[in-house]
Amino acid sequence: MVDPVMADHGQVYPTYTEELCQAMASLACDADILTPNLTEAAIILGEPIGDEWGGSNIDDEEAHRILNALLDLGAKYVVLKGIQREDGIIRNFVGGKDMEITEASNEFLPYMLHGTGDLYASSLLAAVMVGKDMASAVEFAGNITHDAMIVSSKQPNFQDRGVNFETLLGQVTDLLD
Description:
Blueprint: E1 7-8, E2 11-12, H1 18-28, E3 33-34, H2 38-45, H3 60-72, E4 77-84, E5 89-96, E6 99-107, H4 116-129, H5 134-153, H6 158-161, H7 169-174
């Protein structure tokens, strides 16, 4: 599994160099499961970011184009994360060599918390490791991340603390049932 963690919202993280982005793109091509957001997908595909970046409000046709282009580079499964539309829903698309592209969605929460990407990736992998199909794993990861963000929002200074997922770990063990 490769979660590129190198950029978001059209901007490369300050800790990443051009060389490191290229190395991550090379690694992504051999992934069994690749989980980029839209900015990371653009970097991997050599498409524009920064001022030229189109944003996260893309239609299904564009999401499918990007996902298929990433699959063509060699990843077995791709989860394209974080498509935000004006309807208050955040979408994650998944496709693979042996499956049709499907979508999982959750309510868009209007705040960012550190650690949600890590929670999403680890929850996705947990679901896959217990034998869930990719569509179910993507849905599980989105749901637990969404729920953890809501749990986190009830804590004081929650945006400074990162995502609180510990009270939801029972959902991970329930995957074994």
